[in-house]
Amino acid sequence: MKAFVVDKYKKKGALRLTNMPEPELRDNDVLVRVRATGVNLLDSKVRDGEFKLILPYRPPFVLGHDVAGSVVRVGSKVRRFKTGDEVYARPRDHRVGTFAEFIAMNEADVALKPKNLNMEEAASIPLVGLTAWQALVEMGKVKPGQKVFIQAGSGGVGTFAIQLAKHLGAEVATTTSEKNVELVKSLGADLVIDYKTQDFEKALSGYDLVLNSQDTKMLEKSLRVLKPGGRLVSISGPPDPEFAKDLRLNLFLKFVIRLLSRGVRKRAKSLGIGYSFLFMRAQGEHLTEITSLIESGVIRPVVDRIFPFEKTGDALAYVETGRAKGKVVITVGE
């Protein structure tokens, strides 16, 4: 099969198109013919080596964390899917590789594709949808009437999280540039802050939840817009001890992570605020919940650009500019 691989960890290193063996199908796996794949900043961070201590991949490896496609074969113990099913997924860590013609995934990571989406639209959903779901529903436990601040509302996670937060009954604030104000309002944002001309810390107060996706400076400011008893969920770090425990990291890495997050955890505690780091995990059951929201019209995908498979490197470079509205998607084949 054709696939784009990372030959070595390198910042902004080029991906190489090559022929790779078809993935091995395990007993609990479905083999999927990839029709479309989403592109995420996580892909560039993995290629750059930012996660190699906690997510070691041995080069050459195939990149890619979002997929929509058709099941072509199932393992002997698979019960939920059959050949011909149209599915979508974010494959679990250590088994990623959607920048390819085929991928084998554990059936627990997979869900049936929303019937009202095409393959490109469906491929834009899994990583950002699961991130928003786990941040707002699982960790944040957002309830009607609560105030939620979602940073970078026009980005991949932001466009999904705004819609989900509104569905949960929250009052939603977000940041974006002036040109994207109408987009985020159309998704349900109640209060929009132009980050180029306004300081969100001065405009917001008494919030129940912040979804942080920006740098350390923005994280510090975000702590100060929360009310006592509020929660900050960060998808951009620093990782916390609970994350290290979940990944069963060794004692040295647990110590390093505890050290990295000590400052923010201490400041959050002094303000009476909960701090959690979210590193999204694959979960087919959550995707099934998301499918029902999409099919009922509660949430719609936001796709900025679609690239052909041979332009995968260009798609990744475009995502790295930070200018994409919603998601960037690659069409892999007919």
From TrEMBL:
Q: What is this protein called?
A: NADP-dependent oxidoreductase
**UniProt cross-references to SUPFAM superfamilies, sorted A to Z:** GroES-like, NAD(P)-binding Rossmann-fold domains
- Residues of the Enoyl reductase (ER) domain: 13-330
Give the originating organism. Answer: Sinorhizobium numidicum
Coiled-coil-forming residues are none
Matching CDD domains? MDR_like_2
On the tree of life, the source organism's domain of life is Bacteria
- Report any Pfam family annotated for this entry: ADH_N
